[in-house]
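Q: What structure does this chain adopt?
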Amino acid sequence: QNILKIRSGDTLFGLARKLGADKADLPRVVVAIFMANKDSFIGQNIHGLRSGASISYQKVNEIASSITDEQAKNLLERDWTAWKNPEVEQGQAALDMPLERPVPAQEITDFLENWRKHWAGHDSALADDYSDEFRGTNGKGKAAVLSEKEDMVESNNNLNISIDNVKITRSGGTIGIYFVQTMKADQFSAAGQKKLTIKPTANGLKIMDEYYKGKSVDSRHVWAVKVASYASRAMAEAHINRLASNGYVVYEENGFLESGGKRPAVLVGRLSSRQATQALLKKLKRMGEEGAKVVRFPFSVKLADCASNEETLAVMGKASKAGYSPYRAGKIINGNTQDAVYMGVYAKKADAQKAASLVKIDGIVPEAAVP
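A:
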């Protein structure tokens, strides 16, 4: 069972010799035994081996291979100082050491694979992969990053995330994991270099930082130009009518929500690339829309899929008559362009679902969707 029972008079160095450690490897094997069995040591001090303890040596070779001679020497010396000075709080020397728990490479790659599965599978366990002290290189905290990942999964059908070319580095008490991250979905793909900075803690490995640089191809219509916000819907409708008379696809954001305090906003376009949206922004600014800006809202309320232009116009007319601001966005399905009628824009799926539940149009069953 790879277990040794400690008897009176046994020493840690003696156990290491029983396991076949030679003189050169002895300090590292001793430290490996300690790291794998900390609860069997008084005050979790390497010099406090408990009589009667059961010592597991199943992973000793694996752990020993991840420890340098210098690290082993440092731990033995610092714990000896603490052991000889009872006035020093037990374990304090070990806490102050630069050496964290040696983490085998397999444990790191297992953690990385579980993180991938948690993200792609929309698993709530993803939150446990991140430290509460997480701070991304872009300044975002844990909650913001988790929210972005949730939106990524919700707004992409059949999202698949793969990891390749993994490289691991160690520096001080942290571990860097470098890899190529590829994401593919029905209308979206992206690939680039990702780095996770992780740290061993009492509760397992935790992500402290995350950095990604890559390129994406997104055929979803998630971009728009926001031209203005108003205190009243009547003012927003006047702006909508003015832009519509110039031939723009213009609509209202959140104007129909009974959400208390949300100001109706006027948006133009529903495009599949930021570049095309920037071009639209320039045109609108030349028309005097100085406050306009590019925005990204993945979700909308879909009113209907339409098989013909006539059907599209009929649905849009029905929605307009009911007091809403519909717009059309086409998708290519099996080589054929299919129109759909949408309304509103939302950053989160939950907001679009709430909006859909408030829409009342005879003969239409709205749903949250990505154009």
